[in-house]
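Hello forum,

I keep getting stuck at the same step: I have a sequence, I want structure tokens, and every attempt I make locally crashes halfway through. Rather than fight my setup again tonight, could one of you with a working pipeline run this one for me? It's a single chain of 264 residues.
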Amino acid sequence: MTNAWISGTAIAALVGVVGFFVVMRGAAFAAHAIPNGAFAGAAGANLIGVNPLFGLVAFAMAAAFGIGATSRRTKSDVATALALVMMLALGAAFLATSTEYEPAVNALLFGEILGVSSSEILPVLVLALLCGLGLAVLYRPLLYSSISPELSNARGVNVVAIDILFLVVVALTSALAVPVVGALLTFSLTIGPPAAARLISDRPGRALALSVLLSLFTLWAAIASSYVSTLPIGFFVGTLSAVVYLAARGWDVRRTRRIQRQVA
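Reply #2:
Ran it on my machine without issues. Output:
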């Protein structure tokens, strides 16, 4: 449980920041595709007998660079879809070839935070710190290019480079989150709480802080709920992410109606 709280807290805080920019930039499809690429990498790493974390990072990075490079020549959603189907195809091939990996498939798809070992804590914390530092360096140009890419480009910001660097951060974040909350549920944590934070506040700094807090609440509540029940953490992450977003949507609707009545 101690390992679960430490690793989960580091990942939730990082995902809260990354997810905020994913929502701001409309990059939800890429945030869904990259964890699936990371899953395929873990399958491949197990096949050749190396640490799955190396496969997670390698394939997530490959997916990020592939999406970033291909999207320059075609529509970004097409590039993301191509990366997604390619990674899923490779993952299927790796799983079909391996005879030892099948018991771990469920854990990587839906998460197994209570199985995090002490030896995995340090790599998780180091990668989370590196991603956090990268986002701190990129914060201002990343925020500007998320709000207005055309204006940012006109003011000398290399929007293409920022896009690729951000996808790299998304890739590293996915590699950290997949072993904890699973490839399929990483998307829920990346989108649900940050989208709720954007509904509650229009100020970037306040919305970013709220995104981190909501991500931490979602994962902490999911860990506690999974511990006291027989259900996997992935179920609680997905459910709570949806509940948080729906609650924020309801609050936003009531606020909008109240403002309209005051104006009328």
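The domain at 2-263 is CATH 1.10.3470.10 (ABC transporter involved in vitamin B12 uptake, BtuC). If your local run keeps crashing, start a new thread with the error log.
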